[in-house]
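In this section we walk through a basic example: taking a raw amino acid sequence and producing a predicted 3D structure, encoded as discrete structure tokens. The instruction is simple. Fold the sequence below.
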Amino acid sequence: MNGIDQLSRMTGYDESVDDHEFLRSYRRLGSVAISPTGFPMALRFSNIAALTDPTTTRQLETESIRKQGVTTGPIFELHNRSMLFSNGPLHKKRRGPVTRTFAFKLMEGMRAEVAKLAAEIVTEAEGQEDLDFLEVFAGEIPARMIAEILGLPKSEMPRFRKLVYSVTRAFKMGFDQAQQVEIERDFTALIAEVDRLLNERKGHPGDDFISRLIVDAQDRFELSLDDIRWQVITLIIGGSDTTRLALCSTLALMLSHTEQWQAFCRNPDELKMQVVQEGLRFEPPIASFARVALTDIDLEGVVLPTGSPVSVCILSAMRDEQVYDAPFTFDIHRTDQPRWHPAFGTGEHRCLGEALARAELEECLATIARLAPDTVLTNAPMVRGLNGIRRIDQMRVRFN
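The resulting token sequence is shown next.
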């Protein structure tokens, strides 16, 4: 048995190093290594189940944000009050009403609206020489769909979208003091918007998402309106940045693999699920997530002691040579995809917005393939990062 003090330490990581090659070099040395941030990082697909079992690990709560010196204010309250950073009975209580209201069937019903919005953007942008896909398309879709679900009027959507993408930075490690001021300013405005919606629906309930959520949360789960607020904000933030990044990376991959793109254009409805599955495997929007060991955990001969934080690196796991055939080959026709895609997490913390994210990704990509099969990638994106939500610099296309 080996302890943490005997693990390989990841060194030499910077923006010039390919994330996947960097991680592959450490998988060759073992199933766990010490990440550049100093956490043990589990690198193998086989590690995921052991590190997401609620009997052996727990979700980080406020530890990471306290480490950045944030102990008050809206960023801290997000980590303190959100279901995402909760454990045990409190997590179930906060997640329960959202699970019921944010149901798979309801989110599947959004597909037609997603396809309609995607078609509008493609049609308006057709022929533009150099379209900012990240801003005009990938950033617009998830924010607009969340706004639709919340019942925001169209006139408020541009402001709402700006607030959402500013506040998503609260989920990322390493923001500086100037960024913190900006995030907290926009967070305060977003909280005010959510509070307004909650109070309106509380006073005049209807047959909409927010009204049903309030009734379910208060009657069945005894949540206060303040608690409901933080769960709604979690949905807003969690369902925006990751989908935006996945839209960009998956389309860029498809356009860079001509034969697969052409096959998709011939049968977009038949292949859209496979395209999204492989895009999320090959270039996932989330690199890793953290857990804390509740007991000593043996990971292929490496013992993580009780209380140890550990980073579960799905970015590495989804190119694990022990699981996937030719893991560094992008192939929408592969047959070795797992039933439950690790890109959406696993266990009791699995992403609540999976159905909506899949609807957005599949319908958007299928719409582009159907309406603009000769689309050209004019400036490919770089997707980087080993921790949490990854970063994307830009992406530009020409719809034809």
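Looking at the output, two observations stand out. The chain has a mean pLDDT of 91. DSSP finds 18 helices and 14 strands in the chain. In the next section we compare this with other chains.
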